[in-house]
Structures are given as structure tokens and as C-alpha cells.
Amino acid sequence: MSDTLAPDEAAVVIAASPFLAELVKLIRAQDTFGRREHKSDADILKPFVVDKAARKLISIIDDPGPEVMARVDLFYNAAGLAIERRTGLIASPTIKLNHEGFGRAMLTTGRLIVFSKYHRDIHRFGFDTLQALAEAGDRIVGEAADLIGRFPEVANF
């Protein structure tokens, strides 16, 4: 797992992404023992970067471990928080994955489904670069905010 960005470049990517800002805050908030206190934001986000070489080392058929499940949960919770910060409405994640790593992740606001994605091979969950992670999260937030804007009566229910 490696990201080719220099520490300064990583800081710029993180600062430019509302999604990554929420993800870092969420990870730091859950660090009750202070193990990540002295780590940079880029170091905290390293587990989310699984480049193609690292992905090839992961078996095609495998059950997702608790670390992977925690990463998926953090990813969608951060997206929900970023949506809430942008729109003022709570966006709740619902993640249903079976033991083999297949399932669905949704974000809902009121009665509106603002994001839905089917996952398979979740044990390989990760992004090629920190920039790709930021783009994926910010895209979810942007699309969700657009849907909330189009259907406010459903989102505010």
C-alpha cells in the first residue's frame, strides 16, 4: 500500500477535499487511546490506499476481515457526515454485506436514497491513490447534495 504523493502534496489533497476532512476527523475521534495522535493525516488515510500491486497480492476469494469492514464503515460514515455538513440534513449510511464480501451500501436522507452502490470483493476495498479516494468521496457528496436539491420534499420528510 503506497501513495506516491509527497507529504506536502498529500496535505494539499486532504485540505481540498471536504470528504477527506470528515474522514480524518472521524478516524481521529475514534482514536480513544491516542495511538494515531502523532501521525499525519496522510498516514492515517494510508489503509484506504490499496494500489493495483497491493490488490494483486490479496486473494480473489476471501472473507473480509474486521479491519476492512471498519474501513468500509468509516468511508460511508464520513460521506454521510460530509453530506450533512454541506446540506444541513442527516445522511445515514446503511451497509449490508455478507460474510463473503458482497452486498450494498446506501446513504439516505429523510425518505430519499441519495447514494446506493453494490459491492463485491469488499476484502479488496481501497483506492489506487489518495487523490482517487478524495474524488470518490467528494463525488458521492456532490451527487447526494444534488439529489437533495432536486427532491427537498422527500429529503426533508
TrEMBL record:
Pfam families: DUF269. InterPro entries: NifX-assoc_nitrogen_fix. This is NifX-associated nitrogen fixation protein. It comes from Aromatoleum evansii. The lineage of its organism: Bacteria, Pseudomonadati, Pseudomonadota, Betaproteobacteria, Rhodocyclales.
